[in-house]
Known about the structure:
Layout: E1 3-7, E2 10-12, E3 18-25, E4 33-39, E5 46-52, E6 58-60, E7 68-72, E8 78-83, E9 92-99, H1 103-106, E10 116-117, E11 121-125
Parallel strand pairs: 2-11
Antiparallel strand pairs: 1-3, 3-8, 4-5, 4-9, 5-6, 7-8, 9-10, 9-11
Amino acid sequence: QVQLVESGGGLVPPGGSLILSCVASGFTTNYYAIGWFRQAPGKEREGVVCISMFDGTTYYKDSVKGRFAISEHADKNTVYLRMNGLKVEDTAVYYCAADLPSSCSVHNGPYPNSEHWGVGTLVTVSS
């Protein structure tokens, strides 16, 4: 069965950095799209970034451009989210999700109705 497991969350001061990981397993092929979402306290879940595991195409939420970067490991089973220059407003539970490889491009961002989801990892930006 398909599973997604996030890791790397924690407490970081403003301006700091974190790298989140999403390890995928159970897919019959390595061609799919991975999206990162986040949900801050009292707010709706929002898409952050996505990547197609087929051609590497990426889409970023405007507020994280230049600060966050998504990449995939050569084994195609792990996707990383590097977060630099973290702000207090970045505090949220971060989720990874997987869907068809076209979903990232079709929706110009991570697909909110992705088929597979991890349980999330908490990122807290605070001094």
